[in-house]
Specification:
Number of strands: 0
Order of helices and strands: HHHHHH
Structural class: mainly alpha
């Protein structure tokens, strides 16, 4: 598949999957975000915050522990991946 898109011999096959995260990370962050009380979001709406401002000023600071945990899990997953770089980043010298 990497040869069809011209990705063989580059680091892109290693970067692209890590940019989107895996199912465990998405589920973990979703479960963490469900623990944020709805009252905070409602009070932000009453104070006149829009959706984007509510996300940036209310939700993101409360979600920092969950994001940090996911960042650590992703880092260790990438750090312990030994065969991925050997398979994808190696130059294909065979026919």
């Amino acid at each position: 598949m990497g040869q069809q898109f011209g990705l063989s011999g580059s680091l892109w096959p290693l970067i692209i999957p890590m940019a989107f995260g895996d199912a465990y990370s998405i589920f973990l962050l979703r479960q963490f975000l469900l623990t944020i009380p709805k009252e905070y979001l409602e009070s932000a709406r009453v104070d006149g915050c829009g959706e984007v401002r509510t996300l940036l000023t209310i939700v993101m600071p409360m979600a920092k522990p969950g994001i940090a945990a996911i960042a650590l899990f992703q880092f260790f997953y990438c750090w312990n991946d030994y065969f991925g770089p050997q398979i994808y980043a190696a130059q294909n010298t065979g026919a």
